[in-house]
Amino acid sequence: MKKFVIGMLLILGPTSVMAQPPAGGRGQQTPEQQAAAAARREAEMNAPRPIAAMDSVWMEELTWMEVRDAIKAGKTTALILTGGVESNGPHLATGKHNYVLKVMGEAIARKLGNALVAPIVTLEPGRPDSNRVAPGSVFLSPETYEMVLTDMALSLKSMGFTNVILMGDSGGNQTGMKTVADKLNAKFMGNPARFYFIPEYYDYPSVRKFVQSNGIPEKMEFEASQGSDNIHEEFGIDALMMLSDPKTVRIAERTKANRATINGAPLLPVEKTLAFGKRIVELRTQLTVDAIKKAMAAAK
Fold first, then answer.
1. Is the pLDDT of residue 8 over 70?
2. Contact of 276 with 179, CB cutoff 8 Å
3. The predicted structure's pLDDT at residue 68
């Protein structure tokens, strides 16, 4: 029995010690110690940045001091961009929307001039419990999706952003973003931040009109999700993805297989498609920035 008790003490002993708060720990701090700790935190938060800031609009590429100083300097608009990982036919990487957002997020934030971009929400709402999820498609439940957006938006508000913009590159993302923006605006009433859902970002009909009116022979209706090739792919998307990385549309493999077209529109030469992709970026950026400014003016 004595050996058993000793053995149990050896097992429980470290756990019991770990469970006790250390001397002088948070649970035992005096008011003076708490005040001193708060002063140290405040000093750390206001410490000068020891190196020059990196020129980036992506929060995840910046240090916390660079984000802090950007907000203080007037970059008080934050962009929440939502994409997805889904089946997109035989040519496109499943992260299609996320690659597009890397290109468009940079351009929109730079055009606004006072914005930083939060980490892209790379998963979209759907039915993860469906009997058949297409290979490569990864979904969040609608409830989880809205909770993620809510927590991100609240984080941005709490760090000092006064305008939080929600925009999505996939059709299924739109409703959840609008719901979150509406709920947060009803809760905070613009103080200390306002939340905007910008549906005009997801204006692919304008892109299709632009493509076809500028000499690209794509056979696709403006409001359709598929063209003459009967797959969920189009020239405007391919051109934007190629700006991020031509490998995402498998251009080398398609060229070898004599499939370097989409809906009758050629993707070769690559340089020509990339040049047109930059024009699409300019179009979408201007449409989006105009919509953001209009929404902000209406809110005021």
1. no
2. no
3. 97
